[in-house]
Specification:
The protein contains 14 helices and 15 strands. With 402 residues, it is an alpha/beta fold. The relative contact order is 0.14.
């Protein structure tokens, strides 16, 4: 396990008129933020160190709103191991006085960290963990699922692919919580729209060889090969599908695909594919302005997870200021009564189950001759409101949303 813990201290001294004395109610006059994600493996490109830089931008922007309070950021690599993630979270809460924990990619580690945060009664913001269990069966008063979930991406993408004639599906899924959740949610939509799931195969995280899995998919004779994986695994499986000739007989569908995936594979290998996203860097003037700041530091365009990392930390710090304290319960109450309005989300709000209600985008990968500049990868087909694609109250198993 990497023992590097990066501490970014923002000594902020600009004045702000706030009712009462904010810093008097903030423990040790320090806001401590923890960020645990994949820094070195399959999902490092879609979040990882880029997520750290996005959070640093949020902390720097907080300088305009804080007086006499410093912000400290702790970061760690979970190595896709739930025990490492939970033990690091517990250490930070117990020894470092952590105020809020932000989780990056990997649903299994996210679920483990959520349990620790509940025990410590501290805010926990899940950015990269997509399993619906976070705001459904395992919802809590302290968990916010901020960026996306597998139900939202499945409902956005699968509906479009079935409407295009993709009626029979075969799934290639990552063998852990995220893959299982995405496969189930997508399968449910396929069946509900009149399609059929012919089968599936699971692969380990960071698999070295996808050939046997792809041959099984090819033998199924399905019209659509659905990918319930992400990051380096998605890149390798799409590349393998093309090499094995699956693209000649099957439509490829990836409910979740990132700019970094397209950059690695190239538009020729991915053109025409449909996917979904909670945010796109080239959507409008505001997203492009923030992406320019991110690019100046990281030297590539941000994914929606990077944008969500920034937004979540910005929203948390604003809520601490508005609440006048870093007390976990009071800050959670403030966040749940405040709308999110920034370059990531407009008029978004946290539902009783902890899910941030925001729009989703249906995207299609451009043809090579349609791309006009670097990282110009997606066409926005349509924007779908959260009420349309998120789990509804009538479907929810969350005990706090009844």
């Amino acid at each position: 396990m990497s023992r590097a813990i990066f501490k970014i201290i923002a000594n902020l001294s600009l004045s702000l008129i706030v009712c009462g004395s904010v810093n008097a109610q903030i423990s040790d006059k320090v806001i401590k933020i923890g960020f645990i994600t994949d820094m070195s493996s399959a999902y490092a490109d879609i979040d990882g160190k880029g997520g750290v830089e996005a959070i640093k931008l949020a902390i720097a922007d907080a300088a305009l709103s804080l007086k006499g309070v410093r912000v400290e950021l702790l970061t760690a690599d979970h190595q896709h191991k739930a025990d490492i993630a939970s033990s690091k979270a517990r250490e930070w809460f117990d020894r470092e006085g952590l105020d809020v924990l932000i989780s990056g990619t990997n649903s299994a580690t996210t679920l483990a960290m959520a349990q620790v945060a509940v025990e410590k009664k501290k805010p926990f913001i899940a950015v990269g963990g997509g399993t619906t269990r976070l705001a459904n069966e395992e919802c809590s008063p302290y968990t916010i699922q901020y960026a996306y979930d597998t139900a939202a991406v499945a409902r956005t993408t699968a509906s479009a692919v079935v409407a295009l004639g993709g009626k029979t599906w075969y799934f290639l899924a990552a063998d852990y919580a995220y893959g299982a959740s995405l496969q189930k949610e997508t399968s449910d939509i396929v069946v509900a729209r009149g399609g059929t799931v012919l089968g599936s195969v699971k692969h380990p995280l960071s698999a070295s060889d996808f050939s046997s899995f792809l041959l099984q998919a090819q033998a199924s004779k399905a019209q659509v090969l659905g990918f319930a994986n992400a990051g380096a695994d998605l890149i390798a499986s799409i590349k393998g599908a093309k090499d094995f000739g699956l693209t000649k007989t099957m439509m490829l569908a990836a409910p979740l695909m990132f700019e970094t995936d397209i950059n690695a594979l190239g538009l020729a290998a991915t053109q025409g594919m449909y996917t979904s996203s909670a945010w796109y860097w080239d959507a409008d003037e505001n997203t492009r302005a923030w992406a320019k700041r991110f690019f100046a530091v990281v030297k590539r365009q941000p994914t929606f997870l990077h944008a969500a990392d920034y937004s979540a930390v910005r929203f948390y710090i604003q809520s601490v200021l508005a609440a006048g304290t870093d007390d976990g319960d009071k800050v959670m109450e403030k966040m749940k009564s405040t709308r999110v309005n920034d370059m990531f989300a407009k008029d978004a709000y946290i539902r009783p189950d902890g899910r941030l209600n925001k729009d989703m985008f249906l995207l299609q990968v451009k043809k090579p001759d349609e791309s006009k500049y670097p990282w110009d990868f997606f066409k926005i087909v349509k924007k779908l409101p959260g009420e349309q694609v998120l789990i509804k109250k009538s479907e929810s198993k969350c005990q706090y949303w009844k």
